[in-house]
Automatic annotation (TrEMBL):
Gene3D superfamilies: Outer membrane lipoprotein wza domain like, wza like domain. The keyword Chaperone does not apply. It is found in: Cell outer membrane. PANTHER family: POLYSACCHARIDE EXPORT PROTEIN GFCE-RELATED (PTHR33619:SF3). Its main location: membrane. Keywords: Cell outer membrane, Ion transport, Lipoprotein, Membrane, Palmitate, Polysaccharide transport, Porin, Signal, Sugar transport, Transmembrane, Transmembrane beta strand, Transport. Pfam families: Poly_export (PF02563), SLBB_2 (PF22461). This is Sugar ABC transporter substrate-binding protein. Belongs to the BexD/CtrA/VexA family. It comes from the Bacteria. One of its GO terms (molecular function) is polysaccharide transmembrane transporter activity. Coiled coil: none annotated.
Length: 376
């Protein structure tokens, strides 16, 4: 398919152009790599591990009370001396008001509090009546601090957050679900947290450790499969939509996937990459963003593959999903098209004249009929 001429794209002085033109060089590639959107930290305001798990409505809580000797508030005198002198209260769920009930302590606030806070509250209520009491509060069943992992995983799972010890990261949560069910380079991860949602390629979690953030209570992690693709058209060996078939590819590999540039048609100095960049990145690239609205700016990157250095630059330029690669025709190709059209027209006209001269009617020596055989 035909596209814009290279001169039209490079016409940076035309303020009406709906895009900016940036020539690829080592400095530009380094800048793009530095600000590559490679993870979740920019989406999250806090990437620290979760604090102590707090109880929520519906959680099942176990309360154990120890006394120094029998004959106190909870351990009867006839029980004698036994290791611990403790009593296990029946497990109970945190009610809709966020409370539990403890004998002789009354209603204790549990929702939104840690086990240590609940222990201290119970102890404060019974310490004057029990014999040197100690209280241990644990979670028997978590129903509020759950993490869900579903989608393109082997075993969708919903599990409670660890109340102590090692903290899970996103890849740990995916491992709990049996791992991804497809190829890593075509798997995307959606993290939903506190009403917000962010999507990253699975490879980002593996290759960028800062993207593999800690899981928080209530997180929902959804995985889906969608091959990363780019589009190539113009003077390439093959035009269409192409899969990355890898987690990342560079511009040189993209050109190769499109069967390279056409020798007799393409202008190697006029290979262009269309994409949108964040506004702050565009400004760092020297783009005048005053004529563009929104958080992103359409940019056309130009690489000169006629220059050997251009190949080294292209190998450093990472492709992104939905990038558009365009190879412009060489200027002489358009001239050749015109000449071919003129030549075809002249040949057609000459054939028409020959046909007129060859037509004869019976009894005449010249044709009295005019036949038009010109082309369209």
């Amino acid at each position: 398919m035909s596209g814009p001429a290279s001169l039209d794209i490079r016409n940076e002085n035309t303020t009406a152009l709906p895009f900016a033109v940036v020539k690829l060089n080592p400095e530009v590639v380094e800048m793009l790599e530095k600000f590559e959107p490679n993870g979740l930290p920019g989406f999250l305001t806090d990437t620290r591990p979760p604090s102590s798990i707090k109880f929520g409505i519906g959680d099942i809580i176990s309360v154990t009370i120890f006394e120094a000797s029998a004959g106190g508030l909870y351990v009867p005198l006839e029980a004698g001396v036994r290791p611990g002198n403790f009593v296990n209260l029946p497990d109970q769920a945190v009610d809709n008001d966020g409370n539990i009930t403890v004998p002789y302590a009354g209603r204790i606030r549990a929702a939104g509090r840690t086990n240590v806070q609940v222990q201290d509250d119970i102890l404060a209520q019974i310490k004057k009546r029990a014999i040197d009491p100690q209280v241990v509060v644990t979670s028997s069943q978590q129903r509020s601090s759950l993490v869900s992992v579903f989608g393109e995983v082997r075993t969708p799972v919903r599990f409670p957050m660890p109340s102590a010890g090692a903290q899970d990261r996103i890849t740990d949560a995916i491992t709990r679900a049996g791992g991804i069910s497809g190829a890593g380079w075509e798997t995307w991860v959606v993290l939903e947290r506190a009403g917000k949602r962010a999507t990253v390629p699975f490879g980002n979690l593996v290759y960028f450790p800062n993207s593999n953030v800690f899981v928080q209570p209530g997180d929902r992690i959804y995985l889906y499969r969608e091959p990363m693709k780019f589009i190539a058209f113009g003077a390439t060996g093959q035009q269409g939509e192409f899969n990355f078939d890898a987690w990342r590819i560079n511009l040189t590999q993209a050109v190769a996937k499109a069967r390279g540039l056409l020798d007799i048609q393409a202008d190697p100095a006029s290979v262009f990459l269309y994409r949108r960049e964040p506004r702050d990145v565009a400004q760092r690239l020297g783009v005048d963003c005053s004529k563009f609205d929104g958080d992103s700016v359409p940019i056309v990157f130009n690489v000169n593959l006629q220059d050997p250095a251009g190949y080294f630059i292209a190998t450093k330029m990472s492709m992104r999903p939905f990038d558009v690669l365009y190879a412009s025709n060489a200027p002489q190709v358009d001239v050749t098209k015109v000449l071919n059209f003129i030549n075809t027209t002249l040949v057609t006209a000459q054939s028409g004249t020959t046909l007129v001269n060859n037509i004869r009617f019976p009894g005449t020596t010249t044709s009295t009929t005019t036949i038009t055989t010109s082309g369209p």
